[in-house]
Description:
Blueprint lengths: L1 H20 L14 H23 L8 H27 L16 H19 L2 H8 L8 H20 L7 H21 L14 H17 L12 H27 L19
Helix pairs in contact: 2-5, 2-6, 3-4, 3-7, 4-6, 7-8, 8-9
Amino acid sequence: MKMAFSNLTSKAALLYDEWIKSADPRVEGFLLMSSPVPQTIIIGTYIYFVTSLGPKLMENRKPFELRQIMAFYNFGVVALSVYMTYEFLMSGWATGYSFRCDLVDYSRSPTALRMVRTCWLYYFSKFIELLDTIFFVLRKKDGQITFLHVLHHSIMPWTWWFGVKFAAGGLGTFHALLNCVVHIIMYSYYGLCSLGPAYYKYLWWKKHMTSIQLVQFLMVTIHIGQIYFMDDCPYQYPIFIFVIWLYGSMFLILFLHFWYHAYTRGHRPPKTMKNGISKSKDH
């Protein structure tokens, strides 16, 4: 039994080594990119804290007043999103990509390396955004810590590790570009909210937030789904295309469901999707 287990472990280690060897060498030395284990530990700790430990620690405490910190955080994410949008455009989407069968450029040209750095920065920004939920816990907004919210914030950095490690560029980054644009709008809204009631008069566009997210997921689904109708698109990692399509489709359906109940039937939105953004804050 011990020998069989040892052989199985050795084979698994060899397969892992071979798998890692096929990764993009340009990301060597980037923070968190050596192995998926560190990020898995971080995400696991995050899930445990926001769903169990955090609420228990705050149970008999008053909620923290974090208005100034949250304003700084939200506008900081806006600035980062503006920068990433520009970098995604300059590293491909506005400088040569066709918006159809755009392959990953594995060369070390300045543009290709710029895309690699931008993809890694986008990946790292997903860990920064885990603070969304931490703030919910510290402010005792437990009703906003929904399953979908935690799933979204957990799965994005975990899956993007593989994208950066093996396919930093090409058509698989279109949803990241779109997401950055949407984050500029959304976190501007959150930032103004965190400044207090005096700024609420500038939030007339709140009613359009759900529509913006709906358009985002629709565009992602259509763009990534077109590969299945192309005669020949030799994208290097088709599995990533399927994952992106599945993710975009899932959230498109969820937001269509919300839209139908909130605006077509005129019913009160489901609790986990109230106001489209304020409960789930999925973005």
